[in-house]
Amino acid sequence: MSTDGLSEKLDVNTPARGERTRAFKRDPAHRVFVNRSLHMSKIGFFGFDLDYTLAIYKSPEYEAVAFNFIKERLVAIGYPAEILEFEYDPSFVTRGLWFDKQYGNLLKVDSYGNILVCVHGFRFLKSHEVREVYPNKFIVFDDKRIYVLNTLFHLPELYMLACIIDYFTNSPMYERCSQHSDSVASVDSAENTKTVPRNDSGVMCGEIFMPFESIFQDVRNAVDKVHDSGLLKQLTLDNLRKYVHKDERLPVLFNRMRAHGSKLFLLTNSDFSYTDKIMTYLLNGFENRSWQSYFDYVVVDAKKPGFFEGGTTLREVDTESGTLKLGVHMGPMKAGRVYAGGSVNTLSQMLGISGKEAIYFGDHIFGDILKSKKIRGWRTFLVVPELGQELNVWHDKRHLFARLGELDSKVSEIFR
């Protein structure tokens, strides 16, 4: 590379005496972070997820639509019509929260089980209230009791849980209580809100008791119904420009990867019909070629994270009709064809992938990243769109963080 090209790339100017050299930095939303060394020259296979990885849905518009479908479904199965008045608030939700089915609380927990934030509905519990429910502000993960909301698809569900719990907790028609206790929640006159006694596990209206766990299951079933019905997918396909970002740099990226001799594959849980329409929108119009020609291999209906364990039967897709061909595909996998199902072992054997020469891009830390890394040894690339906002806050408020550091040092000196 020439020095002129290097200067243009890094935006480095010869500084005057006493000045600092300025280096080029990408916009926070476009930066790449690593937690270990990665030699891209050793990567022979680049794999991509579809939803929220190649297909970036516009937020909060997309989540708001899903939220509206969920609340309509809940009213249809008997929930109060008042919940139709709920409006999605993107400022409240974030990925990675735990929902405690027993007490109906949303929890922000660190990697050791320490509870950092506890919210019941929209009410943030004070430290002493948290300790009444969770001794030492600590909780051990139990998948029978805890549900982790760790994907971007979970955001509307998370907000709906908060709305429903808040509605029932503050409605005069319902009283908080335990299924195995006659006690009910008392009222804190100072704040005019109901306190959160340790044994409250639901709400009661007359002779009807609704455990928080059953409320959670109703919301969970409503979410599944919305996705299984195809309503959200069809609305997305009917309004692609409104709900899906289109980036002209995407085909450039794929062409550069393949120009260096790497193989590209698409591995998604979406069905072929949806994948075909989304990828056509994302890639067609830039070059006179089909979207499938950018990939060496395409696998739909992968059913991750199960794909990285036992998997399912691998079958070829008839791209004309969208249906699956009869029988089990025994290989080899051919470029230009589309396959459904299968497993990571089948894919690796047919493509000749040996562990660390493959890198997989995805947004689901469990279904895409941990499973592919731990079970097959793939290198991984996690898409975290929230980091852009985090970095902006850190940059814009860095003087406050610096001041906090100074004060913390002073306190340390005083009590040394």
Structure write-up:
This protein is of the alpha/beta class and 416 residues long. It is 35% helix and 15% strand. It has a 7-stranded mixed beta sheet. A 5-stranded antiparallel beta sheet has the order 5-4-3-2-6, with helices on one face. A 3-stranded antiparallel beta sheet has the order 7-10-11. A hairpin with a 2-residue loop joins strand 10 and strand 11 (208-211). The model is unreliable at 1-14 and 181-198 (pLDDT under 50).
Write the SSE topology.
Elements: H1 3-10, E1 45-48, H2 61-76, E2 97-100, E3 105-109, E4 115-120, E5 123-124, H3 127-133, E6 146-149, H4 155-170, E7 175-177, E8 187-188, E9 193-194, E10 202-205, E11 208-211, H5 212-229, H6 231-238, H7 240-243, H8 250-259, E12 263-267, H9 272-283, E13 297-300, E14 315-316, E15 338-340, H10 344-351, E16 358-362, H11 365-376, E17 379-382, H12 386-396, H13 398-414
Parallel strand pairs: 1-12, 1-16, 12-13, 13-15, 16-17
Antiparallel strand pairs: 2-3, 2-6, 3-4, 4-5, 7-10, 8-9, 10-11, 14-15
Helix pairs in contact: 2-4, 2-5, 4-5
